[in-house]
Amino acid sequence: METSVASFVSSFLGCVMGEPPTQRQTEVFMAVARRADFEKLTQGDFVIPLNSPKLKSVADAATPFGKLLLNPTEENIKLVEQTLETCRPPVGKIVVLNNMLRIHLVRVQVMKTFLPRIAKAGLRYGACKLLQQQVPITVTHRTLDTSSSLRNMRGAKLANHLSSLLAFCGAEVNRREKQNRGGKGTSKDFMKGDDEHCEPQTTPVTEAHHPEQTLVEASMGNKRHSDKGHVKYRQGSEVREKKPHIETLRSHTREDDSVNAAPDTTEAEMHVVCTLQTQNILETQPQCVKEETEASVTGEGIPAQESSHTQDVSEEKDEVVSEVEFVVTDSMKRVKDGPWVYQYGGVVEVRTGGAWAGSVQEYCRILVEELKRTSEMRQRDMDGPEWVALLEKQAGRCLTLQLLSPTHSNPLRVEVEGDTHNTKEASFMLYNYARLCSIFDHFEQCVQQGDVAPLPPVEDVDFSLLRNDEEWDLVWLYLLRWPEIVEEVAVGVVGGSRRPKTAHISRFLYSLSHRWSEYYCRHQVLSEGFLPHLLPLMYARLHLLQALSTLMRTCFAVLGVDSLPSYM
């Protein structure tokens, strides 16, 4: 069993069909199956409609699974069960109810397989090679607004998020800021220090730190300057020569075997794909120069070349693009519309419903006051300079998360008067990450004091003790779902989708925070007194939470929050 759900599907189909499935059969199964995830639940880990014409079209009636699809009788159900016993994929039971096949997995087997591999992958878990060896991408934030407005900051954060996500998928990304003034625009290469923030320009406050809490730039790739001066996000240990051709993306390019590499030493080159807006990205052929030229920004992006479908392969390669530009803009003035042009919404004041044109600094002061009120409610003295610096740093994190919470095309709704609650969702996500850190901090203190033995290797842990539904949900709905989330969003972006899921990762992280908070309130992780008979369960839960910590840090990093609090 590999580290992707698609590989499980392939092994399941291979078992019930008697031979390895084709890529088409696997894709159809994944398309028609209803799978429980963080947005929807099902009565079964996989639910398959037996009357699906698509599934029947790729099934072989001579196989046990084909017989079940065509005639779901008790006899055919038992036939599939007997077949599953011979090859033993992680399937616990199958049930047919209301013409739906419900597949329940063997939870212990899935946990034993996935949790060690997540631990081995570390902050590279979920990274993929989807965009490796494709043409480079430039992500440009174009704006007519030269001020430090909150709306302008929203566009910059969105461009940063897209750059991090695409780099996480193996691409080489150049990041640009461009301001349109009068007839011509002025551009500058994006530098991290140019970004507006809420943090003070002082020495950072020393915080209690989780032993394994490191910056997650490894999950995004190191930023390096190209020869042109742009900031590049790179993935991979070796820089490859830019290829002048465009290759087809494949869904099996996820970095399943990259877990053997050191997660925090990779440095990569990012490449992107030229795809027709009307075609599926996985089926795109390298004959799209003309169409992409029409979708590019005026004077930039893809060269204005024309291709003929009758040309031979060598002539075709001479005309394909060498770079693709993604544009994030606040206005379509002087910008030609296209599949890779994203216009983001404005900032709306909740009370009046009108546009709010305040600055980043003004809004940061509002966020700091919110956080100060919340802390004072917990009876904390917030008057010292260190607390003020800490609140400003926390306000910067909340600002980034709030700006990326709504879909880019929707307005950002803010409260600027009275008892405001802008930081509620962002603080909740950060607070629940700090909860994870506090558990591990306390455990490490107990280890150093000799109260309990250190955490054993993940291979030596008995995950059969994790019997609660909440624990399975954390694994199945979130840990195993993350690689698919990354690929879905990346494919939507590079595929020229008019409605890319730019807020999907933020919603995923918020949902994960809620699920983890519920688990924390219902189950005790560190056993009181460290009684010997409770230690195996405690160690299993700590390894589960270690995987959650890795996942949350990676999500924060892709969203642009690369300095996380270990306490709140």
Relative helix content = 40-55%
Oligomer: single chain
Distance between the termini: 39 Å
- Tell me how many strands there are: 13
Radius of gyration over all CA atoms, rounded: 25 Å
Low-pLDDT segments: 190-196, 200-319
Mean pLDDT across the residues is: 75
Strand content: 5-15%
Structural class by SSE content:
alpha/beta
Strand-and-helix sequence, N→C?
HHEEHHHEEHEHEEEEHHEEEHHEHHHHH
Report the biggest beta sheet as strand number plus sense, adding barrel if it closes.
7 strands, mixed
Count of helical stretches: 16
What's the short version?
With 568 residues, the chain is an alpha/beta fold.
Task: Explain what the structure shows.
By secondary structure, the protein is α/β, with parallel strands linked by helices. Among the domains are: 5-105, no CATH class; 123-345, no CATH class. The chain is 40% helix and 11% strand. The chain contains 16 helices and 13 strands. The protein has helices at 5-17, 23-32, 53-58, 64-70, 74-87, 107-121, 150-168, 289-295, 313-319, 360-377, 385-403, 424-448, 469-479, 482-494, 504-522, 535-559; strands at residues 34-35, 46-49, 91-97, 100-105, 137-143, 173-181, 184-189, 223-225, 231-233, 324-329, 341-343, 347-349, 412-414. Strands 5, 6, 7, 8, 9, 10 and 11 form a 7-stranded mixed β-sheet that branches. Strands 1-2-4-3 form a 4-stranded antiparallel β-sheet. The chain has a two-stranded parallel ribbon with strand order 12-13. Helix 12 crosses helix 15. The longest helix has 25 residues, at 424-448. The two termini are 39 Å apart. The model is unreliable at 190-196 and 200-319 (pLDDT under 50).
